[in-house]
Write a structure and sequence with these properties.
The structure holds two protein chains of two kinds. Chain A is mainly α. Chain A has a domain of 170 residues. Helix content of chain A is 65%, strand content 0%. The radius of gyration of chain A is 23 Å and the shape is globular. By secondary structure, chain B is of the alpha+beta class. In chain B, strand 1 and strand 2 form a beta hairpin. The longest helix of chain B has 34 residues. The chains are: A mainly alpha, B alpha+beta.
Chain lengths: 532, 378
Amino acid sequence: MSSNISIPVDGHAHHDDHHEHHPRGIARWLFTTNHKDIGTLYLCFSLLMFFVGGAMAMVIRAELYEPGLQFVDPNVYNQMTTMHALVMIFGAVMPAFVGFANWMIPLMIGAPDMALPRLNNWSFWILPFAFSMLLSTFFAVGGAPAGGWTMYPPLILQTGAAFPFLIFAIHLMGISSVMGAINIIATVFNMRAPGMTFMKLPMFVWTWIITAFLLIAAMPVLAGVVTMLLTDKFFGTSFFDAAGGGDPVMFQHVFWFFGHPEVYIMILPAFGIVSQIIPTFARKPLFGYHSMIYATLAIACLSFVVWAHHMFTVGMPLAGELFFMYATVLIAVPTGVKVFNWVATMWRGSLSFETPMLFAVAFIILFSIGGFSGVMLGLAPVDFQYQDTYFVVAHFHYVLVTGAVFAIVAGVYFWLPKWTGHMYDEKLGKLHFWLSMISVNLLFFPQHFLGLAGMPRRIPDYNVQFAGWNQVSSIGGFVFGVSQLIFLYLVIKCIRSGVKATDQVWEGAHGLEWQLASPPPYHTWTEQPVVN
Amino acid sequence: MTSSGMRGAALLALGAGWMRMAAADYALNLTQGVTSISREAYSLHMIALWICVGIGIVVFGAIFWTIFRHRKSQGAVAAHFHENTRLEVVWTIIPFIILVVMAVPATKALINMEDTKNADLTIKITGQQWKWQYDYADDGVRYTSSLKGSSQDAAKRNAGIDPASVENYLLDVDKPLVVPVGKKVRFLLTATDVIHSWWVPALGFKKDAIPGFINEIWARVEQPGTYRGQCTELCGIGHGYMPIVLVAMNDTDYHSWLTGMREAQAAETAGADREWTKDELMSKGKEVYTSICAACHQANGEGVPGAFKPLKGSALVKGPVAGHLDRVMNGKEATAMQAFAKQLGDTEIAAVVTYERNSWGNDTGDVVQPAQVKAARK
């Protein structure tokens, strides 16, 4: 479809100047309603949180480097695992995708900005407050939340002074996400350029619309269930207290009704990014555009009926276990379609392997490994062995780190020249890729073995029989952590200087966003392009 | 952590890592276990694994083929195809068929696992922060099983004890769970405080122990032996210190073990009727304290700041005996302090209260007798 686009009106060059008026300095960023500025804010915030959450991961891997306790006590260790997850999920991965959406969706669909620019400003600026509140709990009496990011009662109700901060921080994150999702839906539904029909939308836009609906459906459920925790703790209700007629397992059902769609909220935009990158560097259109959309829709719908596979061991009736097992493994079908489509897109293309493509190909392979262990985990009778072991830790880090995070990094390399007007340092990019690729597998692959050998997750210390693979995993972790500093350096360097990027940037790039200058002027598509 | 700190840590890790790696254990796969359930889980695991490996070889093979053969740098010119309905239908149907192939044995295994009927023996397992209580209701035997002292000592931060020198570090308990070989044992699981999960890999399952609810699962252990596992649901700071040891014995040994346990319990109850000396109470109290209280209040009585109150110098501990007894027996609502009245016998409570009132500089000099505890029970 992208080859049909023509641009009758030059969207930028001759009327740049009179649109560039905006406040300078801090006020520009505080009061901005510009989708590019807000996109930049989201991405910078996400990068910061990636390093904050990463530092916690380094503490975890340092403590697990050998048996015995060396660095932190068990309560601090539990705070690390809990906060690492909350920061990475809500602070790093989700805002990164919203940042991409802000930057790219208006450019891709030929819209001058997001539909609701003031709301857009607000949805970003809530986040720094939410995370200041969450991270401040490290200084609270009793320390930060340590009951796991899943917040299962009754354990989470033993949290000290941090508890209400945790709940309100989650409320704020939820409000931010829902507003962002509403904005994306409003933008795509109302502001597409003439001729940009739904069936011509770039795959990244498609995956984001579906993600936005998932967000609107799922986040209020999370808000509701944490509010119930709050009233259980402070207002004498007993939603989750058996002694008062409640049920602690009900929390898990409601939480995972949010939690499983959340998994796809973190992976569908990644699918979208990879679906932009693979055709570009294969110099060949995306294979099976329509089946890609239907597969994404199928995954989104199925994501609402599989939640209990996170809790096979709580003791469900046989019929429930069978239903959730069948529904869960069924997700492999549309996910498989996506993977096969990417491979078919590469097949008989004219491939080149710049850094975005390297990360995208690594994504396909490593995400598939996470998918394989996902199918294994979906088989309830073996899940009784895998559940809550390092096998699960390996699984979700393959889909979240080598899945979502690799796609985010690929997207940054892919669009950075467009955003900054400079090419990044390709040599450093390749170094970053190979170091990350090797170390991340050293980090997470041995965790499959640890889980199978019987090591539970969320423990600060372990029997000596687990020492070998833990050491390999920690070494991989340290190298992976350090490698990300190359990325930070490369991004800063690219913002400041570099070879001037062309408008198209990549030889195989097609679509409205590549017709604009690099960097695009502050206001773009003030006159709508027409897509034939 | 700062960037230079991270870099330094990584270098140190690399250096130390290579030296130690040669000596370590590198287990790779799931255990086959000693029950029909664990063997079914293992075979299902292997079927799924090999199917994944097969699909992986085909898909990744195609990716690597195209990476090496369809490179622009080698003059590859892009084709223009972008759909093929037949192909897309085929690669939707084939994965579906593969899933059905996996789902059939999975369904059978699940139905078998859930069948807890016709058990020879029922054992109630109660999870508590951070120990397990085993209750052989039909045989009148009940006891608490917690992490062995040798592991507790070595598990402290910078304890100076090499975990490798401790036998079964973190996987050893004071009193194991004992079951007869070849009998269908039904386990009933519950918890008193937060959710725990009871897992012995050799039995082939884990099951959550949830306060206020009872879960069922069963096992027929086929070989005598000692099997180890751990709590697998995050349950607070002691989560990593809550092992399970299961000993499977032949019928004769099992019955003599049962008799031994019953006699010990009878002696315990009889002991409650006599006057105890302070020394006796102190040594018994230390035993109980280590097994039950030290996980939170720590061996040195200093607790964990912000989480668990210290007993050393505590006004409650140094105050009137009645208040101290009440707290131990009835707990404190909305805190981690449980009610131990039902979990511990009169002698145990008397001993531990005496121990707490006369340790770590709490020099009250008080001696609390089992009879006082008996009187305090309503």
